[in-house]
Amino acid sequence: MDNDIQLHSPGTGKAKNSTQIISMFVGGVLIILGLCGILFPAFAGLHLGPAYSFSILASGVLLMYTGYKNNSRDAYLTTFGFAIFYGLHALAGWVFGSYGIPQVGYDRPDPDLVRIIPGFHEIGRTDHILNTVLTLVLAGGAFDWWRRHTEQRSVTMVIKEFIREHRQDKRPIRH
User: Fold this and answer.
1) Residue 6 has what DSSP assignment?
2) Is residue 35 in a domain?
3) Exposed, middle or buried, 75 (CB in 10 Å: 0-12/13-18/19+)?
4) Could you tell me if 65 and 28 are in contact, meaning their C-beta atoms sit under 8 angstroms apart?
5) Is residue 2 in some structural domain?
6) Which of 6, 55, 77, 158 lies deepest, with the highest CB count within 10 Å?
7) 117: helix, coil or strand?
8) What pLDDT digit, counting tens, does each position of 143-175 carry?
9) Is residue 5 assigned to a domain?
């Protein structure tokens, strides 16, 4: 039984790094928030319509899974991907938001309302703040993994390596 092949090894092997911990923590928060959005669409002043609640719940499950799985590169990819996703939501809200009364979730007038799918997926100022915080936390986790797994090289070294790889005759570059 000791020689059984496992597809992944959750909870075994190396200790979790900060990217995995951030992924698990944010994933847990998003799972709770997604479930609250399904039950109470106006939870915490948010506009948690069905599409937004489902996307929050799905991203929480994926973040929790990849953080728990003992593969830090997968945690990096999901934190980076969801940082882009929530960053685009935040950017769209801050740039294109306008005054309006939402039809989903918290029904008070909102000065920065964006109707992605009117009556189904609308985000307001509180949602933009949440998306901005999620973007910063997830991008910080992704940056931490990238910083630990990237060699520190100077710009001239990168350019020399690029030229060396793309030269026809492959002679060494002389200074």
Assistant:
1) -
2) yes
3) buried
4) no
5) no
6) 55
7) strand
8) 888 888 776 666 677 677 777 776 666 556 565
9) no
Query: In this structure, what are the phi and psi dihedrals at residue 33, rounded to the nearest 5 degrees?
Result: -65, -40
pLDDT tens-place string over residues 83-131? 999 999 899 888 887 787 777 777 788 777 777 777 777 788 888 899 9
Query: What global pTM score does this model have?
Result: 0.73
- Sign of the C-alpha dihedral computed for residues 146, 152, 155 and 159 taken in this order: negative
Task: Tell me the residue range of the domain where 94 lies.
Answer: 18-166
- How many helices and strands in the chain, by DSSP H and E? 5, 3
Closest CA to 33 of 12, 57, 13, 50: 57
List the one residue out of 138, 158, 157 whose CA is nearest residue 20.
138
**Is the per-residue pLDDT at 3 higher than 80?**
no
Give me the number of domains the chain comprises: 1
Closest CA to 52 of 65, 62, 41: 41
